[in-house]
Prior knowledge:
The complex is a heterodimer. By secondary structure, chain A is α+β, with helices and mostly antiparallel strands. Helices cover 32% and strands 22% of the residues of chain A. Chain A has 3 helices and 3 strands, in the order ββαβαα. In chain A, strand 1 (4-11) and strand 2 (19-26) form a beta hairpin. By secondary structure, chain B is mainly α. In chain B, helix 1 (11-36) packs across helix 7 (188-194) and helix 4 (102-123) packs antiparallel against helix 5.
Amino acid sequence: MSERVWEVFRQEDEGDPMIHSGNVNAPDEDLAMHYAREFYGRRGESHRLWIVARDAITELDDPDLLKPPFDRSHKKPGGYLIKHKLEAAKARATKAGE
Amino acid sequence: MISEPPATLDPTAREALAELILGVADDEFVIGFWDSEWTGIAPMLEEDVATSSIAQDEIGHARALYELLADLTGDDADRIAFGREPDAYRHAALLNHARGDWAFSVARRWLYETADAARLAALATSNWPPLAQLTAKIRREETYHRLHVDAWLRRLADATPDVRERLADALVRLWPDAQQVFAPLQTEEELVRAGFLPEPLRAIHASWQQAVRPVLEPITGTLPPAAPTMDGRTRRTDDFLWLHGQFTMVARSEEGATW
């Protein structure tokens, strides 16, 4: 039987993020749905499942793109002193709410 | 038109309901045990889990039905399930056969699931509320069972000639016994009169057969005329005697024990 791998994402409750749970082997979409239900939903633990054929996923794992060699620390939020600004904003919000 | 259920059940009504429920419960119980024979040896790991889980669902439905029956007759669900001699079981002849190969199990489950669906659709409108309510719950799971076995029937029908032939052979062989899911009940007249069973089994059978022929005949060729018979739920086979020995083994090992 020619099998494909299907990646399964589950959502615990409406509005929660879809979280990758694992995968199943199945020959077609219909059986993939049944197997995903058996592995990731039969105990009532899921609100919704997404079943995606692995070969339909566009993958990016090129380190030149994801981990560039130059210093990119200026793109991270660290290093900016915003503590006082935050405190002032909080105080304003509290005052406005009174 | 659905007639009002009687406020209290007289002995005749009780006896009729008991016969109806016992047949459905035994069907679910026996197919659950046959299909559980695939645990560990199904065609692929995912299917192994799915088949085992569906078999467990069926035994779960049987349990709920045996409990309903026990309430009705003042009996005990475990005793009904495991404490009877083989000839006291009332499952349809379709469930007298051993598991067979994968094509045979798919063929049997497809015939059974479709027949069961037709029967449950009728029982969902029973005017005896406990039966209608339990049926509604069971149907929610059975919908998924039917989709699963439908997917398998199509896969096998579209596979290599050898696979297709095995499937067709199994369907032809099981065809006469599949009708027996609708075998007449002794108390049927009373069941219909009281509104417990909204329409006679022969009517449910006729619409089931009309619906399944167009799906099966492209695989099997024209299927012969077939109808339910009086002995459809009382015939027993050596295969069933073996299965009965298996599923009563643990209960018999320590009678009256609390597990």
